[in-house]
Amino acid sequence: MGLIELRGPIWFYKLDTLIQFFGAIVALLISYYTYKAYKLSSKKSHLYFSIAFALLGLNLLIYSIVLPAWMVVYAGSGFIVDIFSLPVLLLASKILNILYVFSYLFAYSLLIFVYSKIERKSMMAIVAFLTLVVSVYSSIIYSSYSTQIFMAFNIISLVLLSLIVFFTYDNYTLKKNKSSLLVLSAFILIAASHLLMVFESLSNAFFLSAHIAQLLGYISLLIVTRA
Amino acid sequence: MPERRNKLQIIIDILNLLQKKGRVKPTHLLYGGNLSYDRLKKYIKELEEKNLIEEIIEKDKKFYKLTDKGHSFLDEVRKIKEVTDAFGL
User: Fold this and answer.
1) Is residue B2 part of a domain?
2) By three-state DSSP, how is residue B61 classified?
3) Cα-flanking dihedrals φ and ψ of residue B63, to 5°?
4) Is A2 left (phi over 0), alpha (psi -120 to 50) or beta?
5) What is the ipTM of this complex?
6) Are B63 and B24 in contact (CB under 8 A)?
7) CA distance A54 to chain B (A)
């Protein structure tokens, strides 16, 4: 899980592409099921949940398509392309980064909105504000260097996911069944992947662990949909 | 206080009852579905329009039964319900 640019060990890119693609399929599957639930129940919470997972799925799908494209650029030139010397690539990269950050944070915010059954508009306003600040911040700062925004994105994602973990823990204590435990585990693992990505600049081990945690999270979600 | 059933749960309850019993009189559907007459009528109309249940007459008595489409729909709806329950929706 990372912003759309070259990060982590290059040998891992092919595997990473598969991990992101797998995550995209699982997220879109959940979106499909919850959309069907919305069509049957007309409950807005089902619709919002479906939109959130559709956004996550599309993000992962774009990542899994863009990463191989970068690999082609890399293979063709024999070195990591300095995107700042290529205006078109720089612009595309900036736009994708902003969309990536915004849609991820918006999706997590939507999940919180659904889980907290918000009449509490103030909480939603705070979440919306955070999403906006990070998105605007990313568009400004990215022109110089993206590590800071990347870290901010992961920290805010971690905070939002911690709230989602709290809500899914509530659901698990209520239901006490395997499916709700898997959902809880999945969100814990995805939160852990954001936490590990905060430290990815220190060592590739953090980058790899983050992606493995993400993969395990999406495997848990797949089991829920296939159970 | 028990949680109020949503539309999805009511549809599952009606279709489950029809699958379990094979064919059901409207009055049994009324008690089994735990619905008022007006609400049941609304649900039956919707399910019939979607070709998920059908009305049959046997010895001048009216029954409802699941169609083939209704059986596969029920399987899918159960799956959807499991997913939404797992997420606590």
Assistant:
1) no
2) strand
3) -130, 165
4) beta
5) 0.77
6) yes
7) 15
Domain annotation for chain A: domains and CATH numbers: 10-226 (1.20.1070)
Question: Is some CB atom of chain B closer than 8 A to the CB atom of A29?
Answer: no
Contact status, residue B84 vs residue A37, Cβ threshold 8 Å: yes
Q: At A27, is the secondary structure helix, strand, or coil? A: helix
* A175: closest CA of chain B, how far (Å): 8
pLDDT tens sequence across A115-163: 887 555 666 666 666 666 666 666 655 544 566 667 878 888 898 899 8
**Tens of pLDDT, residues A5-59:** 556 677 787 888 899 999 999 999 999 999 999 988 888 889 999 999 999 999 9
Distance, CA of A93 to CA of A105 (rounded, Å) = 18
User: Tens of pLDDT along A92-104?
Assistant: 767 777 788 888 8
Closest CA relative to residue A200, chosen from A4, A5, A6, A8:
A8
Contact residues on chain B for A227, CB-CB shorter than 8 A: 82, 86
Give the domain CATH number at B26: 1.10.10.10
Q: Which residues pair with B63 in a beta bridge?
A: B56
Q: Which residue of chain A comes nearest to B12, CA vs CA?
A: A40
Domain that holds residue B63: 7-86
Interface with A, mutate which of B74, B75, B83 (most A CBs under 10 A): B83
Task: Answer yes or no: is B41 within a domain.
Answer: yes
Residue B39 lies in a domain: yes
**B1 occurs within a structural domain:** no
Q: In B, what residues contact A, Cβ < 8 A? A: 6-8, 11, 76-77, 79-89
